[in-house]
Structures are given as structure tokens and as C-alpha cells.
Amino acid sequence: MSQRGERLVPEGLLLLRNNILTKGNIFGTSSKAKWAFGLGLASQGETIFFAGCGYQFLGGAKATLSTVRALDRKGVAWEKTLGVTKFLNRLGINLGELYGKLSLQSGRFGEPLRSAVEVLRGMGMQFGYLSEDEPCCAAPLYYAGFQEEFAAQAAHTYQTFRGKGIRRVIGIVPSCTYTLRELFPRFLKRWKVEVRHFTEVVWEEMQRGMRFRIPHGVTVTYHDPCVLSRYMGLIDEPLEILRHIEGVELVEVEHAKGEWSTCCGGGGGFEVIFPEVSHILAVNRVKELLATGASIIVTSCPGCLIQLEEGVEELKAQGVEVMDMAQLLKRALPEG
Hints:
By secondary structure, the chain is an alpha/beta fold. It has a domain at about 210-330: Rossmann fold (3-Layer(aba) Sandwich). Helix content is about 50%, strand content about 10%. The chain has 17 helices and seven strands. A four-stranded parallel beta sheet has the order 5-4-6-7, sandwiched between helices. The protein has a three-stranded parallel beta sheet with strand order 1-2-3. Helix 4 packs across helix 6.
């Protein structure tokens, strides 16, 4: 993209682009694999677990969004603070690292990812994790119009996977999974990697006889992430998983579900470009979900997880949990 073209792009998207191209992740932090410490995951294998930026930086993402919304409410456009960010970067101070530390201080740091690993292992699956060598899927580059940079990142990912003998990927972030499965083949004719989402893998194992059970009955409702439902068509799989967990009563929103599910207001950078509108959408969606009477709201996307938590906090909904599908499944794993 020309310099003239760059002047038309919001500063926030340029920062994301630079972070991906220079640091390999949207936050620009130098470490993203701390969530996996102590799990003993193999560093490679024919099948790998693709963690993605969204879950690995969950705590930092939530802290960033809270900051953006606080600035917006005070009438300060958050993009005006990016000059400070760039100045600090020149001094060797990376705000992404600071947000990474906030993630570590969060009691929920890496919990969905660790839960997913335990569930996959509980189903007897063998897989590796690339740790710090995991490339960014670069989806924000594609959606922001940086097509050349995206193509280059796709080629880099292909070379990484080829060099490590990777044939299959289990993704958990919807956007990353969609990018590897649907977008990469459009740019790479050589791309022959089988890519499946976590919920697809789990449902297939449940159909083969894998059983999950919650000891004490719970009422659960489900929020469909936009990419998972509208882009990938994975609507039935998450619902079937919930229907087949013993001890779970699934209660659905009457109309706004599946392909027609109300958006949580997150994704694609919308929540940082239009923070207040995003917050209103999150609250509205949570109102729909709370109307089901469920005590647990389940979703399968890091962005949705943050947005729904914000909505529950805003509405002061007592006794309602928001959790990722992987977290619920871990809770329902058979003992032993």
C-alpha cells in the first residue's frame, strides 16, 4: 500500500499491521506461549493445536478494551494516544509487553486454552503446539485490505508448517481457523493442510462414544460467534455438544440464534474503533441471553467472551457465568 493510501487507514489498524509483521501477533508482545507452561506439549507433530492471538492474550485484550472505552467516555479518541505508543516503542518500551503482564496477573489467563488441551487429551488425542514459533494467521491484514502483506504472511506460515511436517490443525479461535481453512487456499495453491475447529473435533468424538457429565445440573444458553456460524457454518455442532453433556439443560434464545444470532459487538476491530456502540451491542445481546434464565452463557470465541463478560458486568447479573465451550467441557470431563 502506498503512503498516500496509508493516510486513509485508521492508525489503530496500522498499529495492528506493524505488530503482526514485526512481532508476529496483534499485540506486539515478544511472548505468547506462557499459558502452556507446565503442560508438557510437544513442540511439533503432524497434528498441532493452533492457539491463536485472541485466547493467548485474553487478559491483555480485555485490559486494552477497558482502557479504550474509558478514554472514549471521557471524550478522548483512543487513536490520539497512538503517538505516545509509537514514541514509547522508539524508546524500547512496548505496551504490548505491559498488557501481556496484565494477562498473567489475571486469574483466568490462558484458561480456555488450557481447558481445550485437557479436553483433547481426555479424548485420547495426540497433538503438538508450536509455542513461540506459532505464526500469526494475519487475518486482520486481510480484512483491513493489506492483501500483499497477508499473502506474504500466508506464505511464511506455509513454509513453517511444511518445515515441521504439519498435516493437520485443530484451531480454537474462529477467525484463525477460518483463515487457515478458507483464506489461505485462495492465496496458496500448495496449501494442503487439514484444518478443523475444536468443536468439530469434540462432537465427532462424542458421536464415537465420548461422554461428558456435569455432576450438578446446570442451565446453559449458547451464543453463536459470527465467524463460526455465519462464515464456517458451525451451528449444529456446538448445540449438539451441549445437548449431549449429561447434567446440562440447554435453553436457547427464541429467535436470535444460529445464523441469525445477534452480534456481540466485537470482532474486526469494531470494538476499538467504535467502543461505545460495541458496548451497547454487548449489553443488548446479554439481555437476550439472560432472558432464557440460564445460569451459564457459553460461547466459542475470545472476542465474544470479552464482550459478553462486559455485558454481564454492566447489567450486574448475579450468579451468571460466562465461559468458553472448552471450559465447560473441561468441567464435564470424566474423572480419572
